[in-house]
């Protein structure tokens, strides 16, 4: 898989954790864009070109769950493979959230950023293989980006 053709959007309000995630994912060759809340993430998703979403659960303005619901409600965005990160642990119905929003994973903080990078790479490879085999391209995976890099809006 050409990882540089994959753009990951991070929605995380904690600036330190956002930088750690951005740095870790960018080191794998993936292009990364980062925003500080769910509203900014939704605006960026509407523009297209995002292949994978990592969102925090608790954020100001628009939480991760509100963002996920907005994505479901807005058919123009299409399916975006998503990981929800949370510090809530046992307070959330992890399996219920995975099923409701078709999440790749719910990761409980603290977690290994390397594990997250591996998860993203595996998920994108699987989706691209499905696309190749079915010879149609779903929304959210259609765009290909040639430049790897880090872009932040926070």
Describe this structure in words.
- The protein is an alpha/beta fold and 154 residues long.
- It has a single domain (3-152), classed as Rossmann fold, CATH 3.40.50.
- It contains five helices and six strands.
- The protein has helices spanning 15-27, 38-46, 64-73, 94-101, 113-134, and strands at 7-11, 31-35, 52-56, 82-86, 105-108, 150-152.
- Helix 4 links the parallel strand 4 (82-86) and strand 5.
- Helix 2 packs parallel to helix 3.
- The longest helix is centred in the last third of the chain and has 22 residues, at 113-134.
- Mean pLDDT is 83; it is low at 136-152.
- This is Chemotaxis protein CheY.
- Keywords: Phosphoprotein, Two-component regulatory system.
- The modification 4-aspartylphosphate is found at residue 56.
- InterPro entries: Bact_response_regulator (IPR050595), CheY-like_superfamily (IPR011006), Sig_transdc_resp-reg_receiver (IPR001789).
């Amino acid at each position: 898989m050409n990882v540089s053709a994959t753009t990951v959007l991070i929605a995380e309000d904690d600036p330190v954790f956002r930088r750690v995630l951005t740095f870790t994912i960018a080191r794998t060759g993936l292009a990364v864009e980062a925003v500080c809340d769910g509203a900014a993430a939704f605006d960026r998703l509407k523009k297209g070109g995002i292949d994978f979403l990592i969102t925090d659960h608790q954020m100001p303005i628009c939480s991760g769950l509100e963002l996920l619901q907005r994505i479901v409600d807005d058919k123009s965005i299409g399916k975006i493979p998503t990981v929800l990160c949370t510090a809530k642990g046992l307070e959330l119905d992890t399996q219920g959230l995975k099923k409701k929003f078709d999440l790749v994973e719910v990761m409980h903080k603290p977690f290994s950023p390397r594990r997250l990078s591996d998860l993203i790479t595996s998920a994108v490879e699987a989706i691209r293989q499905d696309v190749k085999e079915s010879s149609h391209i779903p929304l959210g995976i259609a765009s290909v980006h040639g430049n790897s890099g880090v872009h932040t809006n926070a």
